[in-house]
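Exercise 7.
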Amino acid sequence: MNRILIIDDDKELCALIKRSVLQESIEADCCYSGKSGLLQMQEKEYQLVILDVMMPGFDGFETLEQIRKQSSLPILMFTSKNDSASKVRGLRAGADDYLTKPFDMDELIARILSLIRRYTRFNQEDEQQTYDFDGLSIDFNNRSIDTVNGDYELPPKEFDLLLLLAKNQGKILTKQQIYEKVWGEEYVYDDSNIMAIISRLRKKIEENPSSPRYIQTVKGIGYRFNREV
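Solution. The predicted structure, written as tokens, is:
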């Protein structure tokens, strides 16, 4: 059975989420502070972390930073309504998805299931287990990359987006195509998710992120993985 960790100081909300995911055969543990959540992650294995931005003491961003130092688990963040700055900051720091409070429980469950499914999915349809480029190697099984900057195990959205571009090397993919493939949802004309993950990827794979060699921006359309590498 899959298990998730909820880190939020709202105890009533945590209990509600825990009851809701149990109906989907997902177990959940609740922690009410960032520090207790980090300690809990050392005790058990999880398939997803739900993390609230606004917590006293160790806030969501600090907790996210510490999680990303040790784990590539998918992370879904809760932000306040109309707080676009927190959404972008969270995505840039390593979150895979976000929801604004208050939210619809059915939407939360759908996002949880999607993130877990993508994280645990094994790429059996591909006989090839790695993609090798000049200065970059993508490992399907470990969801990791070997780059000029070092080796990285990528969070789900980063890996899925990079793999999508690499599989379509030389082809321009629109933002809508990328969003619907990677997020599995209808495109809603909010490019902050895509831009944040592209930025994170470039910092890892590019020798000079301001002059990218691998992931090229096609202004006004989308992105393309350089056919020359």
